[in-house]
Amino acid sequence: MPVYEINVNNKPYTVDVEATMPLLWVIRDFVGLKGTKFGCGIAQCGACTVHLDGNPIRSCSFPAAGAAGKKITTIEGISENIDHAVQKAWIELQVPQCGYCQSGQIMSAVALLKNKPTPTDADIDAAMQGNLCRCGTYKRVRSAIHRAAELAK
Amino acid sequence: MEKLASNINRRNFIKITGITGTGFILGLSVKGNDVGQIANLSEEAISYELTPYVVIEKSGVISIFNSKPEIGQGTFQSIPSLIAEELNLTLDQVTIKQTSGQKKFGPMQFAGGSMSVRSEYFLLRKVGASAREMLVLAASRQWNVPVEECYAQDVKVFHKPSGKSLGYGELAESASKLEVPKSPKLKDPKDFMLLGKNVQRPDVPLKVSGRAEFGIDAVVPGMVYASIEYCPVFGGKLVSYDDSAAKKMKGVLSVETCERIIGKYKYEVVAVIAENYWAAYQGRKGLKVKWDYKGNEKFNSVEYAKHLHELAKKDGVIDIDRGDFNKTFADAPVKVEAFYETPMVSHSPIEPMNCTASWYDGNKLELWVSTQVPADIVGSFAKAYGIPEENIKLNMFFNGGGFGRRLYNDYIHEAVQLTKKIGKPVKLIWSREDDTQQGPFRPMTFSDLKGGLSADGTLVAFQHKVIAPSLDASDKEGYDATKKDGTMTEGISEQKYEIANMKNMYVHADIHIPIVAWRAVTSTTLAFAQECFIDELAVKAKKDPMAFRLQMLTKESDTKNVLLKLKEVSNWDNPLPKGWGRGVAQYEFFAGLGGYVVEVSTKGTGVKIEKAYAVIDLGTVVNPDMVQAQVEGAMVMAITAAIKNGITFEKGQTVQTNYNNNPILRINEMPQIEVFILANGGPSIKGVGEPGLPPFAPALCNAIFAATGKRIRTLPFDINKV
Fold this sequence. Notes:
Oligomer: heterodimer
Strand order of the largest sheet of chain B: 11-12-9-19-16-17-18
Largest sheet of chain A: 5 strands, mixed
Low-confidence stretches of chain A: none
Strand content of chain B: 25-35%
Distance between the termini of chain B: 49 Å
Number of strands of chain B: 28
Number of strands of chain A: 5
Distance between the termini of chain A: 47 Å
Largest sheet of chain B: 7 strands, mixed
Helix content of chain B: 25-40%
Radius of gyration of chain A: 15 Å
Largest interface: A-B, 58 and 64 residues
Strand content of chain A: 15-25%
Order of helices and strands of chain A: EEHEEHEHHHH
Strand order of the largest sheet of chain A: 2-1-5-3-4
Radius of gyration of chain B: 27 Å
């Protein structure tokens, strides 16, 4: 198996995996960070969303080989003390229910706010519709993104 | 935060049981029928007959045990709050620990039936109040002052006149030697700090930082991974398999068979064991499995629906027979008949089924799993594998969604059989395709409805005949189709409408596919048929649907209050913009009572859900914000079940495979919703998790009728092409 140098949350890791192994499983089972979740395996639910050089990707459908030499950010990498504006807004509005999809929701929201610091509802629809929530927290996800935009100002 | 996250793991549980000898433990005795009796357990060694919920260490550290699995419904906050409130503690002053099926915590360790708060509300408050009274009495004795002069606050007991105080930890030992008060005084609700308030949930920070641990996150030294190949056709049998190619694949260790046990069904299946999950999943592609479909490949949903229509011609088992339906219906000047159909649906929690299991020392079992039923697992697995209950250690995790799916232990049995076979800890993860295709599913129900109106438009005769496969018949062998089956007629005979002549019945249909409870169980489909039909009757009676319902509710009832509240908050009598329509529905069933007014607008060939007003009747509320969240979520689930695909079968196989063709609602489709809670206090408490679901689809379809004149009688339907 090929050996890859990958950078996750500003830390270098060397992993020995199949080139086609999805980045999701590299992160979870080889790097050992469990915050990124498996939901569907076909980029339909967004639970596995991470950032690759700052852009959100579905790590369940992204090959390990493609991550070599790139900077990956996972939910564990967005703040040390749970104080990113998105996290603060998520806590303030008590967004999660079961919480399983929320790492992915938050990674998509962080990326959205980076590109559009004051997103409209249409921006939120476009950026967040790839993230499914079976508990149905969408109303709060939307409110929390608007709130995070305020907090970040 | 880190501390909280790790509370759910095993190390901390061992630690806590280790310190109980020096602590003050108060719990509920579950000996015999004495479920409610509080016992002082401090003198006892940890015993499997007792249920300690509060542990106060001499150091002042206080632990409260949460006996209800956290599946997103908020028990990690609501349940410990019941105890903390009476001890005048806030949740940041305690460590919350999840119970994991230990016998001493009793049989109520499950999350289901919207039961958690209502079953524990008074019991756990009593636990907390007893502990408070004992701490206060201990302090008053130590100071030799009247107990009336002492009070508990801020983890201390104070003497009011002198201002002196002693910490709970300092008092724990002397308090533990006191008798447990027989009837401790519960706090006056006006003094509540936590109950009835929007207290933030302690699990939320964990869930926004990736630190919350779900079953799928369990790591056990030496574990291997498993992925299982199931027969694509329900009811097929394993004939043989060739694993030579699979075994040559990178990371694959072995191939084993095991049994999937779901209700009365047992399926022999083939598991690939590998060094990591991806290798195990890929390994399945290297398997050549020969199945005997045994004729089940002929099964399809279209033919099955025809079969249910045929069965609808038969009489069923009577659920209620009040007055004389046959005569009053025959005599009624206006007769209405309609037939409603609903689909099977999947639970599809985003965390796929998974379990990590370790069988060791020949007769010991350790499990790491997200589950709704910890108590049942310990009890039933001890029986199934012939080992004592104390040999089973269950490690509980947050559930990545439940919705009823994690009431069933098929995936846990699979993992246990595999670890037994290979002698290593095994982590089994179902793929999303396994989850979507293998069920178990919510059954479809078909409804044949008849209503007779008098000349003045009064509903005098009503009949709801349910035609459906049965949850009980799927659960165990020996189903008796001549006996009443309350689950399959859930709520249809218990609505508060005053209808003089009513004859409801159930016609049983066989099916070979495992079907189970889904959030709000059979009410999710029966409410659709029943409350849409009530609307049809209102239209035939030329009455406003809200007024028609209220006219059948002359007596005071919670149902009437829900409808009146809906009427008020939705401004029911105010005209809507042109092209809009509004609909109402309510449903009361075992879990509770809720109702909706839904407003829709027409948009091209379809309709748009503009706004939903929800009312949930609770009696007493522990966390209003959490209740709102539950109803918001229930509505989302109800919309998905009403307008998305559902589960269908062709050639014996599930047609849908994953979220691409078994979609769930997305954020861009989320309508506005406002939730109103009726909570006037009092001892009658209704459930939260489920009642927000059943009345949504009928309110939506009634609104669509009001807007378009089109009556929807079959779910799912395409909201863009009504």
